[in-house]
Amino acid sequence: MPSFSSSRRKRSRFSPVTRQVLLYLFFLLPAALDIAQGMAGTLGPNPTSVCLHDFGRYAFRFLLASMVISPLKRFVSVDLMLYRRPLGLLAFTYAALHVFFYVVVARHLDTHILWQDFTTRPFLTFGVITFLILAALAATSTRRAIRALGRKWVPLHRLAYLAMLLATIHYTIAFKTWHVEPFLYGAVALFVLALRLVPKPPRRSVR
Amino acid sequence: MEAYRYPQPMASEITPRSYFLSRRTLIAGAAGSMLAVGHTDQTAQAAAGHAGGEAGWPAPEKPTPRNDVTQYNNFYEFGTDKSDPAELSGAFKPLPWSVQVDGMVDNPRIWPLEDLTRQFGQEERLYRMRCVEAWSMVIPWNGFPLAAMLKAAGPKIGARYVAFTSVFRPSEMPGQRGGLFALKWPYVEGLRLDEAMHPLTLLATGVYGEALPAQNGAPIRLVVPWKYGFKGIKSITRITVTDRQPPTSWNLMAPEEYGFYANVNPAVDHPRWSQGSEQVIGEGSLFRTARKPTQLFNGYAEQVADLYQGMDLRKDF
């Protein structure tokens, strides 16, 4: 298969790790903008809720983005594998901000209210499990963890597919009525999942 | 008619007195600037209403800033985001307007809006507003009691309910053009006749001393402060007195989640979330929202609890 990355393209000025870090930092910008606007008072009457929901949506977007990297390589030979890890970490970062805004900012760490919420709001169950998966994946994304887990790493990180589906449910039933956006995100999630189920051609030795 | 006494929300519930006092100077300033653009009488009334604390009543709770009241709305006819009603209501031109009053009344008629305000006047009512989504505001409405209009219409013997219908103008209301995911249009609501006749029940034509902006339900809307906000149907075109319980929009959409009564009740949760407390819009900061416990009948229990005597509020939620 022809590969986009190595031979044909000029070598980047930056090392792979630097490029990963730059991508990660660049995409923290939406969070920084929201928080800056919130502090400046230009995010409307309920800035907390805007941040909460924006961060949740960004978490979902980055999760989906990280999940299309592999099919991009497999089906259209675009190799962005270098950026899969920072995209996954961005998904986790935004999910963590999302949870922080819910648990600390909106609910004041009040365990009574949080418990009440957790037992009366089914969509939270889906959200919590999604977050736990993303946290586990982020924690095992270091080189050392990959080495330590060995062959178990791949099946563990397939949980990302489950996270994608749970996030879809979480987002879809969080509203009073049906909204269009969750279905769009869900369609992408199902598409990525369907691609994953396309059988791989048997390996042939090329040489 | 004697002025109706109702509980003004207490400043002490959320607002330090010093804040409140300094705010009063702000209101004076705001009143001055509004006078300059010619809303003399209403603004004077508004100022008088705010100053209630000096007349020996409990000082009113701090009203939610005007900007928040007019920028954070649920009005699905314009869109489902809280900012949509303010942003997407530019095409809505409510005037001229009239309200048809019909059904089981002695004097069915079509009231031009000007006649309504001329005949029934306008008073200021500082009311709590509790949204079913567990957030709340304190809003200075201008309007007249629905009871005044109903008395003029003369409900017939046997009448038990009042049905309300909102406007249907898809060309001016983008939210009415979305099909699949939307509520059914036009929005409809209803009250029992005794609820409708209750002196707290208001037909509002203004907010903060000025005519209602489109996003708040221009030019005339219902305000029932002891019920969840969705009962307060906006942009009313028709009021029908009837002998059977009328359909209501959110109840049609999800009957197990939104009842006909929809009385504010911290003990009866929404199936998908708790109603025990509420976020106070306009208070708190980005990193710490303001929350307070929700009160039975939104704090108006003394005035309205007897309407529901003997009823199971869990069943008739």
UniProtKB/TrEMBL annotation, chain A:
Q: How does it sit in the membrane?
A: Multi-pass membrane protein
Q: Which cofactor does it need?
A: FMN; heme b
Locations listed in the record: Cell membrane; Membrane
Describe how the cofactor binds: Binds 1 FMN per subunit. Binds 1 heme b (iron(II)-protoporphyrin IX) group per subunit.
Q: Which GO terms describe its biological process?
A: protein repair
Where does the record place the Ferric oxidoreductase domain?
Answer: 56-167
Could you confirm whether the keyword rRNA-binding appears in this record? no
Family annotation (Pfam families) = Ferric_reduct
A Gene Ontology MF term for this entry?
FMN binding
Q: What does this protein do?
A: Part of the MsrPQ system that repairs oxidized periplasmic proteins containing methionine sulfoxide residues (Met-O), using respiratory chain electrons. Thus protects these proteins from oxidative-stress damage caused by reactive species of oxygen and chlorine generated by the host defense mechanisms. MsrPQ is essential for the maintenance of envelope integrity under bleach stress, rescuing a wide series of structurally unrelated periplasmic proteins from methionine oxidation.
Tell me how this protein assembles: Heterodimer of a catalytic subunit (MsrP) and a heme-binding subunit (MsrQ).
Family membership, please give it. Answer: Belongs to the MsrQ family.
Name under which the protein is recorded: Protein-methionine-sulfoxide reductase heme-binding subunit MsrQ
From TrEMBL, chain B:
Binding-site list for Mo-molybdopterin: 73, 76-77, 131, 166, 216, 221, 232-234
State if Oxidoreductase is listed as a keyword. Answer: yes
What family does this belong to? Belongs to the MsrP family.
Free-text remark on how the cofactor is bound? Binds 1 Mo-molybdopterin (Mo-MPT) cofactor per subunit.
Xref: Gene3D superfamilies: Oxidoreductase, molybdopterin-binding domain (3.90.420.10)
Q: Which gene encodes it?
A: msrP
Outline what the protein does: Part of the MsrPQ system that repairs oxidized periplasmic proteins containing methionine sulfoxide residues (Met-O), using respiratory chain electrons. Thus protects these proteins from oxidative-stress damage caused by reactive species of oxygen and chlorine generated by the host defense mechanisms. MsrPQ is essential for the maintenance of envelope integrity under bleach stress, rescuing a wide series of structurally unrelated periplasmic proteins from methionine oxidation.
**Protein name from the UniProt record:** Protein-methionine-sulfoxide reductase catalytic subunit MsrP
Is Signal there in the keyword field? yes
Q: Name one GO biological process term.
A: protein repair
- A single Pfam family it belongs to is Oxidored_molyb
Q: Spell out the reaction equation it catalyses.
A: L-methionyl-[protein] + a quinone + H2O = L-methionyl-(S)-S-oxide-[protein] + a quinol; L-methionyl-[protein] + a quinone + H2O = L-methionyl-(R)-S-oxide-[protein] + a quinol
Highest taxon, organism lineage: Bacteria
